[in-house]
Amino acid sequence: MPPLVKDNGKVPRTRAFLVLLLLLYVLGRILQLYADRVPTFLIVALQVLPPAAFALLHGSLLYRLRGILVFTALCLGSGTFFESLSLRTGFPFGHYYFTDLMGPKVFQLPILLALAYLGMGYLSWILALAILGHKTEQPRGLRLILLPLIASCIMVAWDLSMDPIWANIDRAWVWQQGGAYFGVPISNFLGWFLTTYVFYQAFALSLRSRTALPLTPQLWRLAIFFYVASAAGNILLAAQPSTVVAVTDPSGRQWLFADILHATVLVSLFLMGTLALLAWLRLPHPDLAKMPNPRLFE
Fold first, then answer.
1. pTM for the complete prediction?
2. CA distance 169 to 220
3. Cβ–Cβ under 8 Å, residues 84 and 91
4. How many angstroms separate the CA atoms of 49 and 79, rounded?
5. What is the DSSP string of 158-176?
6. Do residues 177 and 98 lie in contact, with contact meaning Cβ atoms separated by under 8 Å?
7. Measured between alpha carbons, how far is 288 from 222 in angstroms, rounded to an integer?
8. What percent of the chain has pLDDT over 70?
9. Residue 105 φ/ψ, nearest 5 degrees
10. Is residue 169 a contact partner of residue 247, using CB atoms and an 8 Å limit?
11. How far is CA 24 from CA 10, 20, 165, in A?
12. Alpha carbon distance 193, 58 (integer Å)
């Protein structure tokens, strides 16, 4: 492992701004409990814009500005292409349409949704990097394939936690034929995996011509905290009071409101939480410095 970058006058200020972005995101997740008193667009913006800004800033420290711009272009390009394709053909996600909840659209696709790909896409990539051993050199061999696969699985775990709520409770988008997973079709998650794998694999291949910069463990942990905050925000929804007993998807099938929330809590706690914990444990830790660090997937 290359030596960790040392703090200079710029890094502490950057870290403070990254913490501020995390706190703004946490605020957005708390405000979702007051959706009847807070503008919905503000809640959505606070859940999308801080992670996207975090990705650009944190990514510029890890991959320099040029590297994170490559990641951004691949991420937004892949997400926009497959979302637009599915809106018109049903492939790869399924047949659906967006409501006005997420604000302005370009060719039926909300701008904030595209930015959501960037924020959570980058956080999922960082968790995958940490799980595979906190390495910054160019991915080679088996790692070149495993890194995009694991990052895609982490991204799909996030979608599993939030899609039924955003689709069938908040109505940010509508699945026209419903689906088996609380009104969401299984094709949606396969589509998410395909979409994210395409840009993760492309980015992994692009890294063969550049080396990432080493970061302090604190900067790595901030990204993991962000992913944990997303899971915690999902769990927080269970505390949201509601008089709604059931929701009906466009196919006419009814789903219990409580069942959707309980599924979200379980996925957030046991799937997203486990992935975050695994990433955390793979990072250098003072208390674990004397413990053997297995060299996986090298």
1. 0.91
2. 34
3. no
4. 16
5. HHHHHHHHHHHTS-SEEET
6. no
7. 19
8. 91
9. -125, 155
10. yes
11. 21, 6, 21
12. 24
